[in-house]
Amino acid sequence: LFHTRSVEMEETKKSFQFEKKDIKDVKFEGGFQPAVKYDKSIVETPREIVKGALAEFTAMIFFVFFSVGSVTSMNLSNGIGGDAVPYSLTFGLSITVLAYAIGDISGGHINPAVTLSMALTRNISPVRCGAYFLGQFSGAIFGGGLLRLTQEPNSTLYHSGIGLNAHISEGGGLLYEFMGTLLLLFTIFQVATWSEIMHHRKNQVEMNKFSVMSVMAPLP
C-alpha cells in the first residue's frame, strides 16, 4: 500500500513538473507572457510590436471618445438625464469591451500604468513598453481631439467635469487617486497574469474580465 502511494506521488510530481515546463515554454505573440519573465534571448519582431502598439492606439481612441464623452455630454446638458452611475458604468463597460477586442493582440493594457507595471516586472520588453506608451498617449490625444470636434468651437460648457469636491482636501484627493489606482492595477495585473494560465477554465476567464469592469466602474 505504501509502495503504491509512493509511486502515485512520484507520478503526480512528474506530471506537475511537466505542466509547469509547458506553461513556461509557451510564447505569446502579443502583450505579456503570464508565467514567465521577459527573456532577452527571445527576439520580438518589429511587426509584432507595431501591431500591438496600433491596437493600443485604436483602443485608446475609442475609450477616450466614448468614456470621457459620457461625462462631457452630461455637463453639456447641465446634468439633465444623467448622473455619476451611467458614466461610471460607461468607463467600466468600455474597458471590458476593448479588453475583449484587443486582448489577443496587445494584451489589452489600454492604460500606461498597466504597461509600466508589466515592464517593471519584466512581463514585456522595454521596446514594447515604449511602443505601447506612444500608441496609448497619441491615441488618447487623438480621441480627445475627435471628441472636441463634436462640440461647438466656442462652447464654454465643454469640460471634463474632473475636480475636487468642496469637502475634500488636495491631500484627500491624492489619497483617493492613489488607492483607486492601486486597486485598479492590482486587479488588472493579476487578471492579466493569470487569465492565460487559466484559459482552459472558461468560467474563470469570464469572471476575471468581469472583475476588471467591476473595479473600473466606481473609480471615476
Automatic annotation (TrEMBL):
One of its GO terms (molecular function) is water channel activity. InterPro entries: Aquaporin-like (IPR023271), Aquaporin_transptr (IPR034294), MIP (IPR000425), MIP_CS (IPR022357). It is a multi-pass membrane protein. It is found in: Cell membrane. Its main location: membrane. Keywords: Cell membrane, Membrane, Transmembrane, Transmembrane helix, Transport. GO terms for cellular component: plasma membrane. The keyword Transmembrane applies. The chain crosses the membrane at residues 53-72, 84-102, 129-149, 174-194. Belongs to the MIP/aquaporin (TC 1.A.8) family. This is Aquaporin.
